[in-house]
Amino acid sequence: MRKRLTLIGALLLGAFFFFFTQKLVMHLGFQTASFDLYYRDQSIWNVTQGKGLYLNMLHRNYFSEHFYPFFYLISLLYFIFPTPIWQFALMALLLCLTMLPILWIANEKFGKKAVVIAFILMMANYGFREANILYIYGETVIACVMSWIMYFLYKEKYRPIFLLSVCLPFLKETAVVIAAMVGLYLIVFRKRYVMGIVIIGFSAVMSWYALTIFIPHFSPDTHYKFAGYYTNLGHSVPDMVHTVVTRPLYAATQIITVDKLLNFLLLVLPLAFLPFFSSYSYLALGLIAQCFLAGDTNFYKFYSHHLFPVLTIFFFSSVLGLDFLKSYLTEASYSKFRKYIKWIFVFFIVLNCLTFIGLESRNLYISRHTLAIHRLMHQIPAKESVVVSRKFLVHLNYREPITLFPGEYTQANYVFVETIDPDFPASEKTSDSIHRLWKAGRKSRVLKALWLGPDSYEPEGPEVYAAWLEKLVHDPAYEKIGQAGSTVLYRKKGVIDEK
Question: What's the per-residue H, E or C state across the chain?
Fold first, then answer.
C-alpha cells in the first residue's frame, strides 16, 4: 500500500510540475494575453490596493459579472508579492487535488496498474489539459470540490460532504445546478433527506441572491451578462427558470441538437461510456442541462471550462462503473469488455498525443526575442501611463492608467506595441501571404506560421491595427526608445524616464 501511495505522490508531483511549467513558459513567452487573466489578475491585485475586485481599465468591479468571493483568498498571496504566477501554481495544485481522489479510488478498486492508466487517461484528455491552458474559473474549483464530495460519498462520510456542498455557492453564482444534484443524490440514493433538502435550499437561496441582488448591485445599468446566452428561454433569470420548470419538453428540445449531442459524445467516448454504469454520473445532470441549454457553443464544447466539473465527475464515475461491470459480468464477458475499452483508451491517448505535438506544443514556443522584450518592457516606470498591445496587457497591468492598442494613445506617456509582421501584411489575406511565401521557397516560414497560428488583432482586425500603428510611427509627439524583434517602445517627448 505504501508503494502505491508513493506512486500516486510521484505521479501528482510530475503533473504539478508539467502544469505549472507549461503555464509559466506560456506567460514568459507572452502567450497569456487573454482578457480572462487580466480580469483575475488585476481585480485580485486591487484587493491589495484597498479597491476590492476592481478592474481599472474597464472601470467596473469583477462582481459585475461573476460571484467569485474565493478571489479574496487568492489575494492573500498578492499581499506577499503581486504576480499571476501565484495563479499558475494554484491552478496546477487544483488539478492535482482533483486527480487525487480519482487515483485513490482506482488504487483501491484495481491496484497499481489502474492508477497509472487512470493518470494517463486524465493527462491525455484534451478537456483536462485545456483547463490548465485557461485560468482559474469557478468551474475549476467546483470540479476539485466535486471530486472530493464523490470520494466522501463513496466513503460514506457525510459531514465533509455537507461542508463542501455548502461551499459550492460561493464558487460561482450558478453553482446551484450542481449543488442541487448533490442534495438530490443524498435524498434519492442515500436517504439523507434533511441534509439533501438543506443543501438544495441553501444553494438555491445563495444563487438567487447572487443573480438578482449581488451582481446587479455592481452593474445596475445592465442585466446579468450571461443570461443573454439563454434568451431562447426568457428575458430574465426568473423567466428562464419558469420556462424550464413549466415547459420541460421545450427545454429538452433546446438540449437535443446534433452539435450538442456530438459534443456530449466526445465527453464520454474517450471513457468508453463507463460513467453510465455508475450512479455518481447523475451528479453531472444539472450542469450538463445548464451548459447544453445555452445558445453559445463555448458553453457546450466538450473541452469548455463550463463542462470541466462534468468531466471530473465522469472520470470518477468511470472507475466505479468499471468496478460495477466487474462484479456484474461473467469473467469471460468482463475479459472481452476490457479488451474493447483497451483499444478505445489507446486510440484516444494516441490521438491526444498527436494533438499535443501538433497544436498544444506551440504554447511552449519561446521567441529568440523574448528576453529582449522583457528587458525593453522593464524600461517603463511602474506608475507611468501606458498603452499596450493585447499580449502585453497582463505584464503591465499593476497600474491605473493602462489602455489597449489599437486606439487613442495620446494621453499615455509610453506606448508598447507589436509591429505588423512584414511576411503577413495587413493589406493581404493570410492565405495569399502563405501562397506567396510558399512560391518564394520559404516553406519553413510557412510551416512555422501554420504551427503558431496567425497573429491576432481581434476584434479590430489587422487593417485597423496597421492604421493606428502608422499614425503612431509618424506622430511627432512620440519617440522610439527601443525595439526588440517586432516589439517597439515609444515614449512621449519631454517625459523623463525615472530609470
Answer: CHHHHHHHHHHHHHHHHHHHHHHHHHHHCCCCCCHHHHHHHHHHHHHHCCCCCEECCCCEEHHHCCCCCCHHHHHHHHHHCCCCHHHHHHHHHHHHHHHHHHHHHHHHHHCHHHHHHHHHHHHCCHHHHHHHHCCCCHHHHHHHHHHHHHHHHHHCCHHHHHHHHHHHHHCCCCCHHHHHHHHHHHHHHHCCHHHHHHHHHHHHHHHHHHHHHHHHHHCCCCCCHHHHHHCCCCCCHHHHHHHHHHCHHHHHHHHCCHHHHHHHHHHHHHHCCHHHHCHHHHHHHHHHHHHHHCCCHHHHCCCCHHHHHHHHHHHHHHHHHHHHHHHHCCHHHHHHHHHHHHHHHHHHHHHHHHHHHHCHHHHHCCCCCHHHHHHHHCCCCCCCCEEECHHHHHHCCCCCCEEECCCCCCCCCEEEEECCCCCCCCCCCHHHHHHHHHHCCCHHHHHHHHHHCCCCCCCCCHHHHHHHHHHHHCCCCEEEEEEECCEEEEEECCCCCCC
